[in-house]
Design a protein that fits this description.
Helix content: 55-70%
Distance between the termini: 60 Å
Mean pLDDT: 88
Largest sheet: 4 strands, antiparallel
Number of strands: 9
Shape: globular
């Protein structure tokens, strides 16, 4: 792959800056909608941030520091685009985006769409920043004493950084395919699961008082099982077949088109939007090769063979780079099959569970409405890693909810509008985890809250979030209790309760 051209660098970083300013799930935007509004009650450090000891800082100090990091990120991203001050802005962009993504992951359930941009920003630290299309180059020609920020090296003068980003993109897609293969099996391609996920998305949008982004397209696809099956097969093929992009330039470009179509299909019919990840694909395209091939095809002449990557003499640094790239590919294989889901490295488990025919991951839906059976599944989930949709079935589809109760006995169910949509998504994930731990800890067959018993996990969860819920409710001060209710087949049961 050719080295990073200054024009491509400008386009990529300016596009990244636009996404950081406008994308509603960007780490920079989530600061306000999730990190601050959710407060310390809904925040927890995850993955590497937990190991680094970020939980030792107060929530307010973290929020204040992240606002400063956000401003630095905007400036560094712009300087990286124009090639000013060498690779320093590129390093700052990578460090700031890494920190923002890591910290905001603790305020939301997940943000898989930003994994590739974060990794790409880090890997571009291996790319050159000063060339004929950089401000540093212009200033160096204009002013004799202008510092020379960068000296060319065998790796920075090659397409090493772009090749590493390709490995990462392939690893992300491959891990998603492996997750479907492990969790759902080949049966996942029958379209039943995809149809269920689409219909669930529409139901959730209706709960929020809305509808799918494109209702007509959503209805046309989700109502036709054969079409859902075809799309399921397409998904599996491009995900598991992503490895081929590492070995064939022509196949890679066809695959990039398929990836873009894949992301577009998700955007038209489901919740996620992968614009941040899709934007990184411009770094994977061999633009000179592509335009040359298109020109030769247009003029109906034999394809002009091009050598796009300069010959690089074998040095210790080059050999180390090759070893690092090979290790990165092997690492993604391990992440995929071990199903590691920790920030900043994660396989992609979304929508990988087989759901349909009255079962989720092989568990009958009816089991979630029977006390003894749902407790068995909760205990199993504590001992082993349950599948993505199986965990969410402990609280999805109106199975569990929060309500506030007054001294008179009057109660009101809290809606996403009460808690704000983004905070509701975070709270929903925490409810699912609290239910699993609570049901696993309680005596078999008895889920109801008892005031004189020890504080079980669900009650501890309510105690933790009660101040934030009270603040969001505002002037509705006559409610005195916050409760978590779970629906069984034989009636609703209050599994946890606490005073405001």
């Amino acid at each position: 792959m050719p080295p990073l051209d200054g024009r491509l660098r400008f386009v990529f970083y300016m596009g990244l800056l636009a996404l950081l300013l406008s994308n509603y799930v960007a780490p920079t935007r989530l600061l306000e909608t999730a990190f601050r509004a959710g407060g310390p009650e809904l925040y927890e450090t995850v993955g590497l941030m937990d190991l680094l000891g970020a939980d030792g800082f107060s929530h307010e100090s973290l929020y204040a520091s992240l606002r400063v990091i956000r401003r630095i990120l905007y400036i560094a991203c712009f300087f990286s685009a124009i090639g000013f001050l060498g690779r320093t802005p590129i390093y700052l962009t990578a460090a700031c985006l890494f920190a923002l993504h890591g910290m905001t992951m603790g305020a939301i359930t997940s943000s898989h769409t930003w994994y590739l941009p974060v990794h790409a920003a880090i890997l571009l630290c291996f790319a050159r920043s000063t060339d004929a299309w950089s401000l540093d180059h212009y200033l160096g020609k204009r002013f004799r004493r202008y510092p020379r920020f960068e000296r060319g090296g065998p790796l920075t003068s090659s397409g090493f950084a772009r090749q590493l980003i390709l490995v990462t993109a392939v690893g992300i897609f491959f891990s998603a395919g492996v997750a479907k293969l492990i969790d759902g099996g080949w049966e996942w391609m029958d379209g039943v699961s995809l149809q269920w996920y689409m219909q669930e998305y529409a139901e959730r949008r209706a709960t929020l008082g809305g509808e799918p982004r494109f209702p007509a397209i959503h209805a046309f696809i989700s109502e036709r099982l054969w079409l859902c099956s075809a799309l399921s097969v397409f998904s599996m093929v491009i995900e598991l077949g992503a490895i081929g992009a590492l070995f064939s330039r022509s196949y890679k470009h066809l695959l990039i088109l398929a990836w873009l179509a894949f992301h577009l299909g998700i955007y038209l019919t489901m919740l996620p939007q992968f614009a941040p990840q899709a934007w990184c694909y411009i770094l994977l395209i061999d633009w000179v090769w592509l335009t040359t091939r298109a020109r030769d095809f247009w003029h109906q002449r034999p394809f002009t063979a091009l050598s796009l990557t300069p010959h690089i003499p074998s040095t210790a640094r080059v050999q180390a780079g090759v070893a690092f790239g090979s290790a990165l590919a092997l690492f993604w294989v391990i992440v995929s099959f071990a199903q590691i889901e920790e920030w900043p490295i994660s396989h992609i488990p979304m929508y990988s569970t087989y759901v349909g025919h009255g079962k989720v991951a092989g568990v009958p839906w009816d089991d979630f409405g029977v006390a003894t059976r749902v407790q068995e599944h909760a205990r199993r989930c504590q001992k082993t890693q349950c599948q993505w949709s199986e965990i969410r079935h402990f609280g999805r589809n109106g199975r569990a909810w929060l309500q506030v109760t007054a001294a008179s006995g009057e109660s009101r169910t809290l809606t996403p509008r009460d808690l704000k949509t983004m905070i509701w998504r975070r709270t929903e994930g925490l409810i699912q985890q609290a239910i699993i731990h609570d049901f696993a800890a309680k005596p078999t067959g008895r889920l109801a809250y008892q005031p004189d018993e020890p504080e079980y996990p669900a009650t501890a969860f309510l105690v933790r979030i009660a101040p934030r819920i009270q603040a969001l409710l505002g002037n509705e001060a006559h409610y005195e209790r916050l409760e978590l209710v779970y629906r069984l087949h034989d009636g609703d049961v209050v599994v946890a309760s606490t005073l405001f």
